[in-house]
Known about the structure:
- By secondary structure, the chain is mostly helical.
- The chain has a domain at 33-108: Cytochrome Bc1 Complex, Chain D, domain 2, CATH 1.10.760.
- The protein has helices spanning 3-28, 33-42, 45-49, 69-77, 93-105, 120-123.
- Helix 2 (33-42) packs across helix 5.
- The longest helix is centred in the first third of the chain and has 26 residues, at 3-28.
- The chain is elongated.
- The N and C termini lie far apart (85 Å).
- Mean pLDDT is 83; it is low at 20-28.
Amino acid sequence: MNPFKKTGCAVLMALLGQSAIIAQASAQATTDARHGQELFMKRGCYLCHGTVGQGSNAGPHIAPDPVPYAAFTIFVRTPASQMPPFSDKVLSEPELRDIHAYLSSIPKPQAADSIKLLPKAELK
Ligand code: HEC
C-alpha cells in the first residue's frame, strides 16, 4: 500500500471537515434582506426614511450605501435627537442585521451623466 495515498486522504478529510464547519458558521451569520425590508415597513422606519431609505422631510436618507453596521446600531439604539430610540427589546440584533442587509441591497441610482439624452428632434 502506498503510504502517501493514506496521508493524502487524511489531509483531504481534515480539510473537508474544516470547510464544512466554516460553511455552517457563515450560514448562521447570514442575513435576510427580504425579512429586513418587511421589518423596515412594519416597524415604521419607512415613515421617516422613505420606503427605500431615500429620506423625507422627517428623516435623512439612509440608503443606498448605509453606514457600516457598527455605526448603524449606535444610530438606531441611541439616536442623535428626533428619531425615537429602538432598543433590543423592540428590534433584536438579528432583526437589525436584516434591516441593514435590506438597506445594503438597495441599488445605487444610475449616474446622471450615463443617462442618454433624447435627441432634440424627439422633444418637439
Ligand atoms: C419618527 C421618524 C423616524 C423613524 C420612525 C425612524 N427614524 Fe431613523 N432617523 C430619524 C431622524 C430625524 C434622524 C436624524 C438623527 C436624529 O434626529 O435623531 C434619523 C437617523 C437615522 C440614522 C442615522 C443616519 C445618518 O447617517 O446620520 C439611521 C441609520 C436610522 N435613522 C435608521 C432608522 C431605522 C433602521 C429605523 C427603523 C427601525 C428608523 N431609523 C426609524 C427619524 C426617524
